[in-house]
Amino acid sequence: MLKEFKAFIARGNVMDMAVGIIIGAAFTAIVKSMVDDLINPIIGLVIGGFDFTNLFVVLGSGDYATLAEANEAGAAVFAYGSFLMAVLNFLIIAWVVFVLVRYVNKVRDLADRKDPPPPPAPKGPSELDVLMEIRDALKKQAGLAK
After folding, report:
1. pLDDT averaged over consecutive 10-residue blocks of the chain (146 residues)?
2. Is 0.70 topped by the overall pTM?
3. String of b and e for 113-122 (b: at least 16 CB within 10 Å)?
4. Number of H-type helices and E-type strands within the chain
5. What is the DSSP letter of 61?
6. Cα dist. 88→33, 39, 47, 93 in Å?
7. Which are the contacts of 78, defined by CB distance < 8 A and separation ≥ 6?
């Protein structure tokens, strides 16, 4: 059973998958930082700093100013604002990934594109054509000499 496990782990597709997961996790951190640190502040500035996360409805009794207060008190809340922010963040992240993949594909296409072959050099007369011209010229000269 240990041999089978070693063979399974050593397969190329398992190793490729592991590398993909690791790179994906690192890429996720980059995209999350881009969204949280660069894009969301700009969106917040455009829409007046409005934060959806504090939109909630208390499902029991109590009045809380923020979602954090309601959670601290242990109140049951319907936190639809957090859900809206998660959907918005998903859409932003999906857009950023789309733009990055599109850019990478364009760069790859440019790198893979082969230059068109140069146009063929104009052909001069062949050796036979030159010899025939010389023959014809010699005949012409011989005809004039008579």
Report:
1. 78 76 87 82 76 80 84 86 84 84 88 80 83 90 71
2. no
3. eeeeeeeeee
4. 6, 2
5. S
6. 15, 11, 13, 9
7. 56, 57, 58, 59
